Every structure is written in C-alpha cells, then in structure tokens.
C-alpha cells in the first residue's frame, strides 16, 4: 500500500490547534470558559449543549446529589467555574487544553478529528485549512 504524502499547503494538527486556541480565546474572559461560550453561541463543539441533561449530570456526578437535583442552569454555572478553576490550577489557557490532559468531562482536543478542527477553524474565521 502506497503512503500518501501530506499536501504542500497542509498545516499540522498542532498548528491548527494553536490557530483555533487563539480564535477561541477571543471569546473567553476570567468569568467565561470556552465551554460556556460555545454553548451560548452555538459555535465550535457546542460546549455544555453537546450533552443532554442526563449526560451532563453524569459527567459532573462528582458533585454528588447536587448534580442530580440542581437545575441545568445551576449545573452549567458550576461547570463553567470548575473549568476556569482547572485552567488556573493547571496553568493552561483554555478548557480544551485542560481536558486534553485530564479527560474527565470530555477529551479536549482529542475529541476532534483533523477534519473537525479544519471545519471549526473555517466556521470561526472563514478561512479554509487542510490539516495533515
């Protein structure tokens, strides 16, 4: 089987993640994680909205009974603050980087194929990239 060489105009997965991170950071602040922004704006991975109520509660089951009884809005607020706290503790710029390392509420950048990353970048910037 012949090995396919990457296209000359392709950029690496790592370069694409760096470009995406720079774009996503424009939406965040010290009170708002990318998970919150993505859910509120319906962009990127859709953040907390990518999970139904039951799945979101399962992912934050470590909250115990509170995760089962609080409203979704309350749960998302705690999840947002938790993502921001993990960024601070881990010294990482964005929740995707935290989850890349911790793999607890999602798998961060590992959740996405190269095609997904290229699509996200196009959706955010209008610029097409080929990820190799």
Structure at a glance:
The chain is mainly alpha-helical.
> What is the count of helical runs?
7
**Overall pLDDT metric:** 92
* Biggest β-sheet description: none
**Are there runs of 5+ residues with pLDDT below 50, and where?**
none
Report the count of strand segments. Answer: 0
What number of domains? Answer: 1
As a whole number of angstroms, the C-alpha radius of gyration is 16 Å
Judging from the principal axes of the Cα atoms, what is the shape?
elongated
Q: Explain this structure to me?
A:
The protein has 132 residues and is mainly alpha-helical. It has one domain (13-125). The chain is built from 7 helices and no strands. The longest helix has 19 residues, at 72-90. The two termini are 19 Å apart.
Task: Using brief descriptors, characterize the structure shown.
single chain, 132 residues, mainly alpha, 7 helices, elongated
Q: What does the secondary structure layout of this molecule look like, with pairings?
A:
Layout: H1 13-25, H2 34-41, H3 53-59, H4 65-69, H5 72-90, H6 95-102, H7 114-125
């Amino acid at each position: 089987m012949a090995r396919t060489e990457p296209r000359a105009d392709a950029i690496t997965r790592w370069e694409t993640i760096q470009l995406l991170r720079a774009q996503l950071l424009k939406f965040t602040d010290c009170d708002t994680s990318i998970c919150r922004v993505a859910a509120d704006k319906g962009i990127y991975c859709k953040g907390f909205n990518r999970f139904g109520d039951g799945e979101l509660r399962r992912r934050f089951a470590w909250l115990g009974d509170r995760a089962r009884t609080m409203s979704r809005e309350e749960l998302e607020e705690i999840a947002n603050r938790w993502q921001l706290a993990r960024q601070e503790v881990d010294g990482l710029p964005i929740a995707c980087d935290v989850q890349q390392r911790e793999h607890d509420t999602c798998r961060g950048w590992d959740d996405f194929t190269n095609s997904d990353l290229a699509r996200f970048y196009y959706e955010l910037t209008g610029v097409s990239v080929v990820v190799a």
